[in-house]
Amino acid sequence: MEVVLTPRITPAGPLGLEAYRVAGGYTSLEAAFDLKPDGVIDVVEAAQLRGRGGAGFPCGLKWRLRGSDAPKPRYLICNLDESEPGTFKDRVLLYGDPHQLVESMIIAAYALQVQRAFIFVRGEYAQGASGLTTAIAEAEHAGLLGDNIAGSGFDLRLEVHVSAGRYICGEESALVNALEGRRPNPRPRMPRISAQGLWGQPTTVNNVETLVNVPHILRNGAEWFRNLGIHGGTGPKLYGISGKVDRPCLVERSMGSTARELIYEHAGGPQAQRQIIGFMPGGASTPFLGPDQLDVVMDFEAVAQAGSRLGTGAIIVLDDLSCPVAVVLNLMQFFARESCGFCTPCRDGLPYAAQILSDIVAGRGHVGDLLLLEELCEKIAPYSFCAFAPGATMPLQSSLRVFRDHFEQHLAEGGCPYANRGQRP
Amino acid sequence: MTAFEIDARQVPFNNGDNILKAALNAGVEIPHFCYHHALGSLGACRLCAVEVKPEQPEQRPRVVMACMEPARAGLKVSVAAPAALRARQGVIEFLMTNHPHDCPVCDEGGECHLQDMTVACGPPYRRYRGRKRTFINQDLGPLVHHEMNRCITCYRCTRYYQQYALGTDLGAMRLRNEVYFGRFQDGPLESPFAGNLVEVCPTGVFTDKVFRSRFARVWDLDTAPSICPHCSVGCNTLPGARLGTLRRVRNRDHAELNRWFLCDRGRFGHQYTEHPERPWQARVRGQTVNYSDALGAALDQLQRAGAAVAGVGSPREDLESNALLQRLIIRHGGFFAAFTDPGIEAATAHAVRYINRMGTPTLAAMEHADAILVAGELTAVAPMMDLGVRQASRNKAKVGVIHHVADPLATLADYDIRLAPRQTSVALKRLQGMIATTAEQSSGDEHGLAQLAATLMHAQHPLLIGVVETLGAYGVAALAKLAQSLGGQAALAYALPGPNAYGAAIVNEDGATQKVLEAVETGKVRCLVVTAADPLGDTRTGWRWREAVGRLDSLIVMDCVDSATVRAADILIPTAAWAERSGYFINYEGRVQCFDRVFERDKPLPASVAVIADLANALDLGAGEPRVAIADLLPGIALPLAGEPGIRLTPRVRLDVPPPIESVAGATGHWQVGLASWYGDDPLADHAAALSSLAPASTATIAPDTARIAELATDARVMLRGPAGSLPLPLCIDANVAEDTVALPRSAMCQIGVGHGGYVELEAMP
Amino acid sequence: MSVTAVVRGLWGSLRTTLWHVRAPRETVSYPEVKRALPERWRGRIVLTRDPDGEERCVACYLCSAVCPVDCITLQATQREDGRRYPETFRINFSRCIFCGYCEEACPTLAIQLTPDFEMCERRHGDLIYEKDQLLIDGQGKHPGYNFYRQAGVAIPGKGIGEGESEQPPVDRDSNLP
Question: Where are the alpha helices (DSSP H) in B56-155?
């Protein structure tokens, strides 16, 4: 398939402004300015670009719903706070091709008629943020940012903000709080961030992968974009494959590729003499799928129908020599640690579940623990304040279905069967 | 009034209410933690889960948080639905995983919201097998105790402290189940309202450290509705006593005054009732005697003096005592005054007149002002008014403060106007002029007065607040005239100098204080009776009183706290503190409120009104009935009972007497004196051990420019000289002090013999 | 009635009486012989100590609150090191009905009822026991329990986080995991 997002990414480092231009960069600006803001939104909507941050909300629709009459000033934020375990696509885009992101921001800001935009970068990606800052400086110098961009009359100030840390900053409203200098607790769902976001103003938040598709849509058209996808998906998708595979990697494929193709053809399948016992299709907060579901189409609806979520499209593979209970314990400890501490079920319920899992792994599990874990999931997920806790309980809840026999073996053997057999769990 | 349904019960609501607020107002219990009427909804604790019936029959009922769900007509809510019960049980179980096994040693037990909610909603047994997270506690000062293990992370403390009280030194740290609420740096809490953390916290994280030193369980306390005896706001309180000692003071709701909060002076100032130097034993010329002997001696002196008697009441004495003493003395042919400083008397009298004429807002109403001018250091005099101004400023009101020394409200203000004491009235007159002429910004306005004038002019609900003690009569009148020039919507309020200053002003005749003082000085008075006042300790006039009482045959003093006057008494009759008796105070609004007796000591002391009544009855003057005295003073007013909201005296128009010209006779020196006070400063609270340990050091404070011009170094010691003597003090430099001003504490001013706005000589010591 | 029946009847009663001459007695010759009472017999109240020898009572006031006849009075105070204890503890045994509610209510197993009833006095006032008459040196009926090892507060010998169910304290100055 035609690779659009990643061909300029090489081990030699990101392209500077001139080289990026030679490769066709910033040519979409002219197309955008010709279409006018509403036209840009129309094209993006027609392309059926869906958000790549995990929720899958149609990007053009999101932009249109904010309304062209939204009170000024308005803001645009690129969410580059990629902290989901197993997900590394945004890092590759940041470190590999910062100018692509700058170009996307200009077009998106133009479509939304926003004068000030931010790129919120995960703190651990500081080096990438520094490269991005350099790219922005180059663009400003060339008149592609600041006042009267390329003679269009459109002004934009683009800033990089490096996060002070922690996973919850990736949540849209918590991110806005963090930008304001407050503690990054999420805000109530209403009023929406699109109506009252940063400093109480209309704010649009998009994932970086979503945004970098936009210049290509403008350059090549909505239909071209739609046709890049297969099995009903639209556009390209960056899929990461990690875990127990032969060659963990990041590939740009059509949206709608199957998990089997990604795992076997691109990541080399499971390691020698091992069997896949399950996988997470979209990062750590997605439910496990079993080996019988490897043919699932990696698109939003199809994965949801299979009982999981596409999320970020980062596949994590487990094989028969990895203890899934230990994997789930690791995940629960991560989520418990990353809770912002605002609401009780997440703050105190996740460590509770992690503690029981830790007992099970250590051989101190009790007979009623599996029912207790299910009960905890039912008391945590529906009553929490934001979507973090439901995401955190998805691996646990699904593993109690998909890997129940592993759990029961732990209880029966009084410890991890893998450890008992001398295998590394 | 529209209503919705909770478990088949109709609950009325106002537009914009959420389910929880409407329910609590209607007396329906929905378990909750993080919601508080003063702080609003947060949605953090997840305990207020209720089930809402679906709109369409095919939809399923959903569980929502009552505090986040808007109330609307036709809503059907169930608190007792099984899904809601499960949700709440889950929340309590989660909170209990880390809660320490502290109830037996926790002060909160018996009034602990967490205990109540756990019993109401939680599982009866513990099945969590893990270990509890723990925290090291901080020393937050002598007033509030910190025990962080008990925290349930409801965020009430930080929301109250930062968002409501606008404090900055306490907040949330860390994350997840290790969120820590404490000071960012070590040291005592800085806010004058920090004590409210004790009541806002639903568990025992923040507890009353003063109460802890002599602890009793809440179910054993003797309580009665009371009124705070420390300032003119008249907050409603609930003191608690046990076995003959006062243990603590808690807030009591009053919808128009203090509602949910108290200041630290009101909450912790009660310790004066246990001070070792409180007068306990009656004394006659140094000899300890019993009450009837002291009374006999006093009677004897009064009879011998005949008409050469005088009486001094007090703005901190209750209404009946003041009124009865006035009747007694007048009928005996003598002079009576309810103040010790003619300047303060005049200023208070004028303030009361203007309030009567123009009305004054309730404390709750002050929060709706959109532009506020404060003349004076409000935080030190009437802290709860400061809290009201903070709420207005949260509602986007513009605040201007005219002050002469460091002031917490000035730090927050939009217009911070530092002026020497004598410049304040001048500035108020200039503001009035600017408003009258709507003049453009005039030259020479380096203090930003023109902007302030414009803000006040364009405001819908401007509010002017004046501190009577430091404004003086002239300033009080200038502020009132400024309010009048702003037109009908302007509100005026005065922070009067004492819990019953209004009452003292209506008992007092104009010019009485001057008359009494001069009568004592010239020997026209042989016997002086003082109740709850400290004339010898007054700043401006104290030195004159000290000299004058030497000419008396007898000085008869009744008080419940130690003072210079108590120590100089010939006949000392110790009296009951406010919580040991009942009485009436009239607050800054002219609201008569009743405080009830909370407890009786093992060896009870007589109430001052009872002592005066005994004297009056023995002298057979027909003046010994307190009720009659009050009826004469406030004809037609049915006095309120303790626990009632109080009765606002209807405005009565009285003749407007032109303000006296400020007298500067006897004042020499180039340095204007400004009173340096703090929120714990009053004759009673000065003797509260824990609170007074926070008092700032006694220094002479001047501005950096003034120091430079006078060539005074930062760590110098200076000698101050006034009419009564001289006093060495360490020098302190502070940019918040006005130019040409030296800020002095009360005790220093009293020793030197100079009042606020007076003059002293100052020189560096070698 | 026949003579035989009468004689038989008389013999039956006499036999019963003679049997009872040698039958085992329930009556005990107190005070020469004392009945052994079970441990849970509700008699004189004592205040016990914990395994470390410190007094268990933390002056929580639960016993005085639950007492149906209000016979317990105490005043809480604390040592310099923060350990709470009763400054005064008074039980009026002329009011006490030995119901055992105080023992049930006590969360630290401090106050206990012992199988001792030999406490009569000639003067009413002597029936008011102060703390020195109540506090014993032993652990009473419940050895091994030390409340402070379970509680969250710090006392000498058990700092914050050193209790049996506690983790070491959190470092509040860092956001690192």
Answer: 82-96, 113-121
Residue for token pair 């919507």: B489
In whole angstroms, what is the distance from residue C169 CA to residue C162 CA? 9
Shortest Cα distance, chain B CAs vs residue C67, angstroms: 13
Which is the CATH superfamily of the domain at B346-501?
Dimethylsulfoxide Reductase, domain 2 (3.40.228.10)
Q: Measure the CA–CA gap between B402 and B407, rounded to whole angstroms.
A: 10
Neighbours of B82 (CB within 10 A): 9
Q: Which residues of chain A have pLDDT under 70?
A: 424-425
Using the beta-carbon criterion (under 8 Å), do A165 and C177 form an inter-chain contact? no
Helix, strand or coil, per DSSP, at residue B666: coil
**Token pair belonging to B389:** 């101004």
User: Could you tell me how many CB contacts below 8 A there are between chain B and chain C?
Assistant: 90
- Rounded to a whole number of angstroms, the distance from the CA of C176 to the nearest CA of chain A is 9
Q: Which chain B residue's Cα is nearest to A185?
A: B175
Q: Where are the domains of chain A?
A: 17-227, 234-319, 324-420
> Are A17-227 and A234-319 the same fold in CATH?
no
Taken in order of first residue, the domains within chain C and their CATH numbers are: 45-150 (3.30.70.3270)
Class of domain A324-420 as given by CATH = mainly alpha
CATH number for the domain running over B282-339+510-648 = 3.40.50.740
> How would residue B650 be classed by pLDDT, with cut points 50, 70 and 90?
low
Which of chain B's residues have a Cβ under 8 Å away from the Cβ of A376? 90
pLDDT surpassing 70 at residue B551:
yes
Q: Given A351, A364, A383, which is nearest B87 (Cβ)?
A: A383
Q: Examine the pLDDT at B665 and tell me if it is beyond 50.
A: no
pLDDT at position A325 is: 95
CATH number, domain A234-319, options 3.20.20.70, 3.40.50.300, 3.10.20.600, 3.30.420.40: 3.10.20.600
Q: What is the pLDDT of residue B651?
A: 60
Angle formed at CA B444 by CA B441 and CA B446, multiple of 5 degrees: 85
Q: Which residue on chain B is closest to A189 by alpha carbon?
A: B68
Closest CA to A171 of A331, A390, A406: A390
| Res B625 pLDDT > 90 | no
Please report the pLDDT score of residue B608 as a whole number.
95
Number of CB pairs, chain A paired with chain C, less than 8 A apart: 3
Q: What is the pLDDT of residue B647?
A: 87
* pLDDT grade for B227, boundaries at 50, 70 and 90: very high
- Judged by a CB distance cut-off of 8 A, whether residue A351 touches chain C is no
Band (pLDDT 50/70/90 cuts) for residue B657 is low
Q: Which of 3.10.20.740, 3.40.50.10780, 3.40.50.720, 3.40.50.2000 is the CATH number of B3-96?
A: 3.10.20.740
Collapsing DSSP to helix, strand or coil, A271 comes out as: coil
pLDDT value, residue A106: 97
Instruction: List chain B domain ranges.
Output: 3-96, 127-273, 282-339+510-648, 346-501, 671-764
- Statement: A17-227 belongs to CATH 3.40.50.11540: yes
Predicted complex ipTM: 0.94
**DSSP secondary structure letters along B456-476:** HHH-SSEEEEEEHHHHHHHHH
Using one digit for the tens of pLDDT, what is the confidence trace for B10-55?
A: 999 999 999 999 999 999 999 999 999 999 999 999 999 999 999 8
CB-CB under 8 Å, A348 with B177: yes
Q: What is the pLDDT of residues C75-92, one digit of tens each?
A: 999 998 889 999 999 999
Asked if A353 contacts A377 with a C-beta cutoff of 8 angstroms, the reply is yes
Asked if C175 reaches chain A (Cβ–Cβ under 8 Å), the answer is yes
pTM recorded for the entire structure: 0.94
CATH T-level assignment (fold) for domain B671-764: Barwin-like endoglucanases (2.40.40)
Contact (CB, 8 A) for B568 and B193: no
Model confidence at B666: pLDDT above 80: no
Asked if C110 contacts C56 with a C-beta cutoff of 8 angstroms, the reply is yes
